[in-house]
Structure formats: structure tokens, C-alpha cells
Amino acid sequence: MELKKLIYTVEDGIAVITMNYMKNLNAIDEQMADELMYVVDAAEKDPNVKVVVLKGTDRAFSAGGDIGYFYQLIQAGGEVNMDGLISKVGVVADGLKRMSKMVITSVCGAAAGAGVSLALGGDFMICADNAKFILAFVNLGLVPDTGATYLLTKSIGTSRTMELAATGRPVGAEEAKALGLAYKVVPKEELDEATMKFAKKLAAGPLLSYKNIKKQIYNAAYTDYKQWLVETEVPTQREVAASMDFQEGCKAFMEKRKANFEGK
Prior knowledge:
- It is built from 11 helices and 10 strands.
- It has helices at 30-45, 67-75, 83-98, 114-120, 148-156, 158-167, 173-178, 191-203, 207-221, 225-241, 244-254, and strands at residues 6-11, 14-19, 51-55, 60-62, 102-107, 110-112, 124-128, 132-134, 171-172, 184-186.
- Helix 1 (30-45) links the parallel strand 2 and strand 3.
- The chain starts with 5 loop residues before the first strand and ends in a 10-residue tail after the last helix.
């Protein structure tokens, strides 16, 4: 596959997936989702890959969904159907957790919406001190997707997940570390070095042990993940995406005004 929104390299046993489409701050559209599915599968199947790093750019990790695209559809009177996109990113989300290789997510700047979910999708998250996590779905009249509520509930419990999902408030790098979501926080200018140093350490480690540790944890905590994505996440997002509240939330976001939700 020709990669247009990602950069994928393999060197010294480390596969680096760089989301690199700053036109929309690495928002995850169908093209990005297709490319992510492709490289996650390629990394899993490549015997030369020992560790995977998923990162964004200096400006942002990922802004989540492409709200501008949804806005154009709404303005044109078209239907917004996210089922295909959500199904694809679900494959990516489950693929990262199921993968037999260790996955490091390296986060600089904003991770919003589905970007939060991708950041949580690895086994270790290393953050720049300017990293910010925003479950912004609720501000648009949507629900979290790409496995966010599933992963957060497993990690920080139902009460804290409810708070973050229902308020959409930003979480900084240090709070993410305090919550146990981030493995390490470093100055922005040291992020790449810290990430690659840790990746090299893992790549030189007992890979068979790592593979089976991941398998144990997946089977202990995530065996119903794919089923949840299909049976819970897709239909709940489908319902809210068809609502007038989503249309209003999307318009308000693009028009830089406060949304007037009516619960319809």
C-alpha cells in the first residue's frame, strides 16, 4: 500500500509508525484508518520487527476525527455514517493490544478524541510535558470511540472514566502519569530520544517473554474487546451520529460558538 498520511520505517528491529498529515492535525479519516490497519498488520507479521513505536509530529499526536469533513457533509444535507470508519479503527485498536510485539506510543502535543484512544492503545506511553488528552466527543454530541471508554474503564475505573468522558475536560501529561496512563513524562525536546532509548532496550530484551506477557494480559483483561467494539461502540456511536445534537455540536465547533444541545 502507498502511504500518504503515515511514515513507516523499520530499523534495528524497531518499527516506527509516524502519523504525518498536519493539514488536519493527524485527524483519523478512512484513508488514515486504512493505512494504520495496513502497518499494524505489517509490523505484526514482519519477523524483523521486535518493537513498535506509534507517534505523531511535534505539533500534535492526533486531533481525532475529521470534524471538517463531517461539517461539510452536514452542510450539504448528507448523512453522516461513521460505521465503516469506526469498524476500521476498532481493528487498529484491538490489533495494538493483541499484537505479539511491545508497542510504545509517543505523545507530543494534543491527543483528542480518537487520538486519546490510540495513545492508550500501546503497552507503554511516553509523553512530552506538553501532551494534552481530551475526550472531546461529548462536546460534539458524540460518544468516545476507538475503544476509549473500554480502555479507560480497565485502567482507571468507571468513576474517573465517566468524569473524563462526560465532561471532556483536558488531562495534562503529569495527570496522565499520576493516573497510571503514562509510563514516563519528559521535556518535549527529549521525547524522541527517550522513546527510542526505551524502544532499543525492549528490542534487546527477552522477546518471547514479552510476547507471552502480552498474551496473558490480553486474555486476562481484553478477551471481549473486539466483541465490545462491534456490539457496543459501533451502535452507540451510530445512534448519536444520527442525532440533531451531533449536527449542532459539529456546526458549533466549526463556527467557533457554544453548542445549543436539545437532547434530540
